[in-house]
Structure formats: structure tokens, C-alpha cells
Design goal:
The chain is an alpha/beta fold. It has 14 helices and twelve strands.
């Protein structure tokens, strides 16, 4: 997930240093997108170092916004240098580049896509016994980290957040909070949806009462397709950048949208009357993390130093208070405190939330591809 809090172009400058970090993160993400749109391959965009980087430092292949040096202060303390960085726009782009010969040391996919990375043979199991904070990682996150079938740890959870409906409380009549608002004829032309099956298909599956959204029967998939076709006619737009939805909500162009936690924070900072829904069908929770690549220049000690630094509670405190996303280490929430977590749209006790949410989990690559093809047909009106 792109860890960027967006501001509107008309908003006055603010002195909060966190906002400045978000602006820098967004500009770096936009640069990657612009290069891609121009047909230029995404390349390693290393931060300007204070000294020449040693070849053995970890190369971290990640989403834009996760390359700011402030996030990596623990690694710098441990190694006396920052990691090297390379950025991707999404996991499909990342996996394609790795298959083409790019060799980072650690990458940052999300759990729902881990099956493709395993099938591609580009990652290796991680020895959790070498992770200092492993016992402090939320058990619910460990359980969805791609290790159920093989008994091995393929992904170390790092960050997580929610997918839900953000709506204008002054423009939407809400008797009972439900995903069904994104399919409501009353708000035709006033709804926006994330342009991904992980948002659209899951929301429709929950409305349809599907038992397992990640492995639907053909009959269930047909019902979901019908809901998505209906939604397609009602949408103002599909968004690929959360700033699109945020700006439209702020202006009143739309009244409800699928968003992530950070969008709530962004709009509240602007004084917009919004609420982040706790749908009766369950809130969606995404989990992303670190995978250990088969190749790369850094030695094994440096790679585990990097993962330990990312799992440190102090790193988690920085992530929560600056980006509004959850960290996998429960101690990080102790450092932030209940009020601090609530201010970023996060629960004081994530363990309770995990028990009552639908956690996006790995899917069979063939099933995922079937969903993708269905969604693309819906958008094309086929």
C-alpha cells in the first residue's frame, strides 16, 4: 500500500514535519508513476547518501513512501548506513521486474499476492527464530502470512490497515453501516471504488453473503459479477490513487468511497465531516510485509538486521503516528497509546479488530486470475 497522506493543492502550508514527509513520499510515488506512463522502466531510486553505500547493504524493493530515511533509523543505528531502495507501483510490476533479472534482497508485497511470488520461485522461507520481536507480532497476522500449507514462514508481516467505506456524514443517510451503500441507487454518480479486485470483488462478496470471498464457487462468482456490473453503472469513477477519492469526497463530488485508513486522517485534517465505516458484514484488513528474495548482494546477516529493524516497536511507533497504518508489533501500540491510535483511525486493541474483520489472505493464483479477468470484463462492459 502506498504510504502517503495526501493534501489538496489549495491547502495552506503546514509546519507539521509529518505532513512534509507525506508530501515527499507522494512526489516520489508520482515520479515512479510518471516514468511508467512515459514507458520508462522503474529503476532503483536510492536516497542521496551521506557517504557511498557499501555493496553489502540491503536493497529494499518497496512501495513509494517506505523509502524515507526517517523510517529506517533503526537499521542506520545497527549498520551505520541506510538501505538501498528500489520502488514499484504495484506487486505485478515488481514480480515482473524480478522475473526479468532484478535482484533485490528484501521486497514488500502484500499477503493476498504471496501465492504468485511462491509459485514464481523467487522467494525463500524466513527463519523466524532469528527475529528478535517475533513473539510480539500479533498472532492473527502470523496466521495469514502464507505459512499454513507448508509450515514455513514466507512473509513477515510488517504493516497492515483496513479497507472500508469512507462517507460524508452530512451527505449520506446511514441507518445501518453496510458495504451495500456502494451499490445503492440513491447515490448514483456519487460513489468511487478502488480499481482492484481486492476492493471491488471482496466488497461485493460480503454484500452477497459469500462464505469464502477468496475461493468463490462459480455460482457465487456469478452473483458477485452481477453486483459489480450494477456498481459499475453507479460509479463516478474507479480510483488508482487514494488522493482521487479524497479530493472528490472533500469537494462533495462523491459522498462515499472505498478507502484505506489514511484517507480518514487526511480528510479530518481538512475539517471534512466524514466517518470510516465499521460495516455489519465486517471490515476488510490488508496485511503487507517482508519477503526474503532468493538472490541479492547483501549477506544473510544484513538481511536479518533489516527485518529486525523494521519489526522494532520504535519503527512501528513511527509508522503509526506518521502514516496512519498499523504495525505488526503489538508493543508499538503500547508506545503510541490508545488516543494516539484513535487519532490515526486505528483501534486501541488491534487483536479485537482482527477477530471481527475479514483479513485478505493468499489466494490460489489461478483463482485470482479468474477474478481479475471477470473484473476487467465488468469494467469494459462485456
Amino acid at each position: 500500500m502506498q504510504a502517503t497522506i495526501h493534501r489538496s493543492a489549495s491547502e495552506p502550508a503546514m509546519s507539521n514535519p509529518a505532513i512534509e514527509l507525506f508530501r515527499r513520499a507522494r512526489s516520489r510515488r508520482d515520479l515512479v508513476r510518471d516514468l511508467r506512463d512515459l514507458g520508462i522502466a522503474t529503476v532503483a531510486l536510492s536516497l542521496p547518501p551521506a557517504r557511498a553505500r557499501a555493496a553489502e547493504e540491503v536493497t529494499y524493493y518497496t512501495w513509494a513512501g517506505y523509502d524515507v530515511p526517517e523510517m529506517h533509523f533503526r537499521y542506520n543505528e545497527m549498520r551505520g548506513a541506510l538501505p538501498n531502495f528500489a520502488l514499484f507501483a504495484d506487486e505485478s510490476e515488481a514480480l515482473t521486474k524480478i522475473r526479468s533479472g532484478f535482484t533485490p534482497d528484501i521486497s514488500h508485497p502484500c499477503i493476498y499476492d504471496i501465492g504468485r511470488w511462491q509459485a514464481a520461485g523467487v522467494i525463500q522461507p524466513i527463519d523466524s527464530a532469528r527475529l528478535i520481536e517475533w513473539d510480539n507480532i500479533f498472532p492473527a497476522l502470523k496466521q495469514v502470512s502464507g505459512n499454513q500449507e507448508t509450515g514455513e514462514q514466507w512473509l513477515i508481516p510488517f504493516d497492515w490497515g483496513n479497507g472500508s467505506v469512507l462517507y460524508r456524514t452530512d451527505l449520506v443517510t446511514m441507518e445501518e453501516e453496510s458495504w451495500s451503500v456502494l451499490f445503492d441507487e440513491r447515490y448514483a454518480g456519487k460513489i468511487a471504488m478502488w480499481d482492484a479486485i481486492d476492493g471491488a470483488a471482496n466488497a461485493a462478496a460480503l454484500v452477497a453473503g459469500v462464505q469464502d470471498p477468496f475461493n468463490m464457487t462459480d455460482e457465487e462468482l456469478s452473483v458477485v459479477r452481477g453486483l459489480l456490473e450494477r456498481q459499475n453503472r453507479l460509479l463516478r469513477f474507479y480510483w488508482t490513487d487514494p488522493a482521487q477519492a479524497e479530493q472528490a469526497l472533500a469537494s462533495g463530488e462523491i459522498v462515499a468511497a472505498y478507502t484505506w485508513n489514511a484517507s480518514l486522517v487526511n480528510l479530518e485534517l481538512q475539517g471534512i465531516p466524514v466517518k470510516y465505516m465499521q460495516p455489519k458484514e465486517g471490515i476488510l484488513t490488508w496485511v503487507c510485509g517482508m519477503v526474503l528474495m532468493n538472490d541479492g548482494a547483501a549477506d544473510e546477516a544484513a538481511r536479518y538486521d533489516f527485518m529486525n529493524a523494521m519489526l522494532a516497536p520504535e519503527t512501528g511507533e513511527w509508522l503509526i503516528t506518521n502514516y496512519g497504518y498499523g504495525h505488526s508489533n503489538r508493543v508499538a501500540f503500547d508506545l503510541v497509546g490508545a488516543e494516539g491510535a484513535a487519532a490515526m483511525g486505528l483501534p486501541a486493541n488491534p487483536a479485537d479488530m482482527f477477530a471481527n474483520s475479514v483479513v485478505l489472505r493468499p489466494m490460489d493464483p489461478a483463482v485470482r486470475q479468474k477474478y481479475i479477468e471477470m473484473f476487467e470484463q465488468v469494467k469494459a462492459g462485456l
